[in-house]
Design goal:
3 helices; 74% helix
């Protein structure tokens, strides 16, 4: 059984995809800022550099996707398979950020509380 073709819904695509792409860029920028401006003791320098490189690559991919989306007037979708690695990277960065914040909070507690 085949599914009927759905009419293009640029308003729906625009309402969903534009903010999603902006969110990816926001979280990639926050993660890059954390990695480049703070000391992340639980990441080896090589791991940190590799993560920064993946962030730079993903940022370039999202920016290219945004440009294509805008050039097509919002009449183009994005495959879930394309966005899946971006989502995984955001999740990985959230986990690193959460761990870093927990460790910072523990270090700021008075010694007797630790």
């Amino acid at each position: 059984m085949t599914l009927p073709e759905l009419p293009a819904q640029p308003e729906l695509l625009k309402a969903i995809l534009e903010p999603l792409l902006d969110d990816f860029l926001f979280w990639f920028a926050r993660a890059e800022q954390l990695l480049t401006q703070e000391s992340i003791d639980f990441l080896a320098p090589e791991e940190q550099a590799e993560l920064c490189q993946r962030l730079a690559t993903a940022t370039a991919e999202v920016r290219s996707t945004q440009a294509l989306f805008k050039a097509m007037g919002g009449n183009v979708g994005i495959e879930v398979a394309t966005m899946k690695p971006w989502h995984a990277l955001v999740t990985e960065c959230w986990q690193i950020g959460a761990r870093w914040r927990r460790e910072q909070a523990q270090q700021s507690l008075p010694e007797e509380s630790q």
